[in-house]
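pasting for ref. prot 1 ->
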Amino acid sequence: KHFTTICTVGDDCLIRLGGDTVRDMNGNYVYFTDTVAVGNFKVDESRPYLVSFSLDMTQEILSLTFSEAVNHPDKNKRSDGLDPTQISLQAGLYEEDWMSGDVYEGLARRYTLTGGTVTGPSVDPGHPPVLNIQLNV
């Protein structure tokens, strides 16, 4: 998923093994191969979701951890990357009015980001990808 120029469909997905790739049970190296076409290719159909987030108020950085690889908006302003203006920070889901005791949805205390500089995704092998948003822009 990290590379969008190879293995996006079955026709552009080949594999090549070098002679030192793997050995059999007797220690013989695999036979060197030219490229071999994929035998079974499944298109990515899973949608990423937000796993967690952290907010550093001193550095003014919001970090979003996703379940899988996500796009970063590049310098060409592609529309398929992360848009910080679609992110809102809000108070608890429900709040109690201290005067009346009424409980209401906490959307009254919500702040929608007006921008920010997105960096990442940083990918640490074995961990989900993280996008960072510098908030003081």
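and prot 2 ->
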Amino acid sequence: FFFLMIRRPPRSTQSRSSAASDVYKRQDLIATLEKTKNLAKEHVESATKQVEILRTNLMQVSTGIKTLVKSINDTVEKINKVAGDTDLLPKVDLGRLLEVLD
């Protein structure tokens, strides 16, 4: 008897339908990666805008604090001048005042 063995092609050689399926899988993967990349880009842009808003707010608060400290210093100087001129009021120790307020 002569046996004819039908050999299957090696795994690296795919049938047409299998190759087409792999193309669709690659296209789906590429599309998913593209969507993921776009979402990541949107999140980075959003986070960057939020950081910029926070930075601006922080600068405004910092400016407000500097103005407040200057005002407190000016007021303390005026109080101490009046207290020194009249000896009716005790002098204000700004360091102690800040400790009390803290």
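The longest helix spans residues 16-86.
The mean pLDDT is 78.
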